[in-house]
Amino acid sequence: MGNIFFEITVIICLAAFLSLIFRFLKQPLILAYIVTGIIIGPLGLLNITSGELLKNFAEIGITLLLFLLGLEIKIKELPAIGKVSAVAAGLQIIIYLVLSYFVAAAFNFPPLTLLYIAAALTFSSTIIVVKLISDKHDLASLYGKISIGILLIQDLVAILLLIFLSGFNVTSGSIPALSAFLLVGIKGAFLFLAVWYLSKNIFPKVVEVLARSSESLFLVSIAWVFLLAAFVSSPFIGFSIEIGGFLAGLALANSIANYQIIAKVKILRDFFIVLFFVVLGMQLGFSSVLSLLIPALALSAFVLITKPAIIMIIVGALGYRKRTAFLSGVSLGQISEFSLILLFLGNKLGHVSNEAVSLIALVGIITFAASTYMILYSRRLFEIFRPYISIMDKLYRNKEEVVPEGDISNLSDHVILIGADQMGESILDALEEEDKDVIVIDFDPKVIKKFKEKKLSTHIIFGDISDLDIAERASLDKAKLVISTVPDIEDNLFLIEELNRRNKAAKVVVMALDSGDAKVLYKAGAEYVVLPHLAGGMHVAKIIREHRFIKKTLGALAAKDREYIS
């Protein structure tokens, strides 16, 4: 017991130290964990004697990771995934799976291993992309929504693939017979139907009772994960314990306490998932790294170049401008954490060799590191490549169009409102009362639909203000007032810079989420910066001073607010 405690202590302390370094370098922490494994294993910092036990801990980490993923997926909400994301993800998966198979075939792997490698190269990292896009405050942007939608579809396909492959247990390296495929499909369908029934009829009632005690809820949830994982991985069913974890989460996803369970299990999951990536790094030997370096570099270059290009072409073909398509593609230019899990599972089932696992791990390290910087500096990359992809606007019909149709090129002294949802809707109402010519720019299809239904005279451009073509179409150089309710500091700095260059006479009002961003925006030339928390406090203070919280006054204000949130 003392030995395993000492080894885990060294692993966690080294991983914590490296995580600080990688955070400073703006790299994902997954890389810090894999490098920890490389230092401990191949470099010989620590003579591991509890390797099998650490591998078991790694399996627990994957099981809990998939359990939380299952908790976050609500079956009834799946049809709400955007059509663009669904079509783009479907086409990308099919095209890239076939393309990757033939590219990987150049390195003489067996057919079954080639399928694993092709699938691993096809998926992109949800953890890395969501973290980086969130840090850039781009989750609500048009390309952000498209990228996250594509990742969601990829994750669902990856999960289905994991379920399907875990039903086989072959060691020959050959593709199973058709009867084996049918048997796995039947067992998988049975499990999904059982989980669907439990999630709809049984567990919501059980969790409602358990939610009265957070300790009981946590313990019963963990017990359920291990119980179902043990049942699913039994010889009678024949799937892996990791799949049992996902199905356990899916069964609880519709309960009222699913987010409470996620919050409690997440810390436990993080501990074990660190050990998974460390174990993965430990499996990389110097001899295998040297022999696989050329294939890893070749496949990494293939992923970093062709995956963004294919996604960009697909999104462009679906009617979006080159900037939206380019940023969507660049965001997904890496392999996924599911790629590593897929190869880890395949190795455990005897489908793929240690060599294939090491190859994908190296590809992961390279693409994670490179794509991180590609995402961080995606807008600069777009300006570099913009002249070379201008043909896209000529080839494809743009969905980022004006509603209602009409000529807006002759407008002058007009107001441009960027973002018409929530705060923007209130501002637009005031502008309508003042009888001002208004152009609204928004990238949310729901907002466009709402304005179509209202049949307002306001001109609406579906697109992103950071796209120069959109700025030109809105006659930014002739506007009298520009108001941005979008809190993205890069977009707002771009807007101020363009106004300083094209139209210095225009007044510009922008929004910031914190005082640090507000200082930067004021320094850049903003006329006024809206800070939501400050504006909210001033609004409440005004109510106190003018109305003394009179019940009738509060009721009238609440009624007016409810019109906007309904």
- What's the Cα radius of gyration? 26 Å
Write out the strand line-up for the largest beta sheet, numbering strands in chain order.
Answer: 1-4-3-2-5-6-7
Q: Average pLDDT value?
A: 80
Number of structurally distinct domains: 2
**CATH class term of the largest domain:** Mainly Alpha
Structural class determined from secondary elements: mainly alpha
Largest β sheet strand count, sense and barrel closure: 7 strands, mixed
Number of strands: 7
The CATH topology of the largest domain: Na+/H+ antiporter like fold
Work out the helicity level: 55-70%
Number of helices: 24
Distance between the termini: 59 Å
Q: Which residues sit in consecutive blocks of at least 5 with pLDDT less than 50? A: none
- Binned strand content: under 5%
Using the 3D structure, state the CATH architecture of the largest domain: Up-down Bundle
Shape: globular
Essential attributes:
566 residues, mainly alpha, Na+/H+ antiporter like fold, Rossmann fold, 2 domains, seven-stranded mixed β-sheet, 5% strand
